[in-house]
Design goal:
alpha+beta; six-stranded antiparallel beta sheet
């Protein structure tokens, strides 16, 4: 094996350990026909923290008043509602960066609205997509990479569903040490082989 191939092995292990794909669909947050769990306190879903102005609601036709004029989530019965106005913010629990491929938006009660989906990293703008949406659900392709905050602005209350993200986390220091030892061992073996 060439040295470049040997060096590629620990790198591939590191990448496979540190990335994981998730679709946040809000289906596990509340019982059918109800809303919550926020009530103005925010909530956590799939390891991501949603701002205090967000709730999860049953938007299906059997979901009571909440489902009126919505006809269900993009997938399943549930979606996150911008229940208290202002912008939605989403961050990873415990910090860290992530990427967002796409998400689905719906105007509350089919209200036509405009806004933007914005990605931030350390307070700096990474990317922004302007949106106009109403009913039915509209897909917003983002492909935001290496952000630590996702923000959605809108001119009225809105629903969001099926946020497709890839989260990245730094491996534990013990994992990094083991990889460094393995890499050093491979380099030593390569040099020894060349000297013989």
């Amino acid at each position: 094996m060439k040295l470049k191939q040997l060096l590629l092995i620990p790198f591939m292990l590191l990448v496979s350990i540190s990335a994981s794909a998730t679709i946040i669909d809000f289906d596990s947050q509340v019982a059918p026909g109800t809303f919550g769990p926020s009530s103005g306190a925010g909530f956590v879903d799939s390891g991501f923290v949603f701002s205090t102005n967000m709730d999860v609601i049953d938007v299906s036709e059997t979901g009571g008043w909440w489902g009126t004029g919505t006809g269900g989530g993009h997938s399943g019965k549930f979606a996150a509602l911008n229940n208290y106005g202002d912008d939605m913010f989403m961050t990873q629990q415990g910090g860290g960066s992530f990427s967002v491929q796409d998400l689905w938006l719906h105007g509350w009660q089919a209200e036509w609205q405009t806004g933007a989906v914005i990605g931030w990293f350390n307070g700096g703008l990474v990317d922004m997509v302007e949106v106009s949406f109403s009913s039915p659900w509209q897909n917003v392709a983002l492909n935001f990479a290496n952000i630590d905050t996702l923000q959605i602005t809108s001119s009225y209350y809105f629903l969001v569903d099926d946020i497709q993200i890839n989260s990245t986390s730094v491996p534990e220091s013990s994992s990094l040490v083991l990889m460094a030892i393995a890499l050093a061992g491979l380099v030593c073996l390569r040099r020894r082989k060349q000297n013989v």
